[in-house]
Design goal:
Layout lengths: L2 H9 L3 H12 L7 H11 L11 H22 L5 H22 L11 H13 L8 H11 L4 H13 L7 H32 L8 H18 L10 H14 L5 H17 L3
């Protein structure tokens, strides 16, 4: 995974897509507010005398632009929702689909005559298409003989009764539509079962990937430091740049990071950048 790939992934997302991705458990890093910027600059006062003269508004904008871009990448690459939690939610969906499958097929399988619900659904499909007309006696006799193949008496009574009542029969087109929908539900149930099996198999092989978005954020914060503090970034454990990195990451991630920790994180990010060829 290269820096160029990360930026491309971030730059081609629209706001709605990003919002959806963030709501799916991406846990984005926090954008800095005015108090955060004040805390960052205060942490630098002892190592950089010009910290108080920095344009706070522009600094905040520059940092938040990189936070936003790397949050987008984070949402695309990292799903922190544990597999067992995803499997639990998908199991609920699968159970709901199975219940729907059983309810729709209650009363018997195809043909429509043996399943009142499917018969009525097909009639509604005909209504939508403007095809609903009373069935002929011949159509009812054909349907009755299919529904009651072992009894001419019952099938005859069935046909005569519903023909006299002027009841409609579903057209072949409507029957095909309903059959396709039912088969689609069957396919969904089957695919959901396969997905659950895949997740459970993956759970046993899961390995934690590096936080590439964090690497990218750290690397992009270095030129921001150089631009706003007008000095080359000499990356040392107690230097001004690592102090800046530590302060920004502390405010973005909500946990305390000291300059030595920021230095170690920068080294990992630089190694990743070199290995990826950027």
């Amino acid at each position: 995974m290269t820096q160029a790939t990360l930026k491309a992934g971030a730059n081609h997302q629209d706001p709605l897509a990003l919002k959806i991705l963030e709501q799916l458990g991406a846990h984005p890093r926090k954008h800095l507010d005015e108090d955060d910027i004040s805390a960052v600059l205060e942490s630098l006062e002892c190592v950089h005398p010009a910290a108080g003269t920095v344009d706070r508004v522009k600094l905040r904008s520059a940092i938040n632009e990189e936070v936003h871009a790397t949050n987008c990448v984070h949402a695309l690459l990292v799903d922190r929702t544990p597999i067992h939690e995803r499997a639990t939610e998908l199991s609920k969906v699968q159970n709901a689909l199975v219940r729907a499958q059983e309810a729709i097929k209650f009363g018997g399988p195809w043909p429509l005559a043996t399943s009142p619900l499917l018969n009525r659904l097909a009639l509604e499909a005909d209504k939508l298409a403007g095809r609903c007309e009373p069935a002929t006696i011949e159509s009812w006799r054909a349907m009755a003989s299919t529904a009651f193949p072992d009894s001419d008496l019952i099938s005859g009574f069935f046909a005569e009764h519903f023909h006299a009542e002027g009841v409609c029969l579903p057209s072949d087109e409507a029957a095909a539509q309903v059959l396709q929908a039912v088969n689609g539900l069957d396919l969904l149930v089957h695919l959901m079962g396969l997905l659950l099996a895949t997740l459970r198999e993956k759970q046993g092989k899961l390995t934690k990937l590096p936080d590439y978005a964090r690497y990218e954020l750290i690397l992009e914060l270095v030129p921001i430091f150089e631009l706003f503090f007008h000095q080359a970034a000499t990356i040392t454990r107690e230097g001004a740049c690592c102090t800046f990195l530590a302060a920004v990451l502390t405010r973005c991630e909500g946990k305390q990071i000291d300059p030595a920790g920021a230095w170690a994180a920068w080294r990992k990010a630089r190694r990743w950048s070199r290995e990826s060829g950027d």
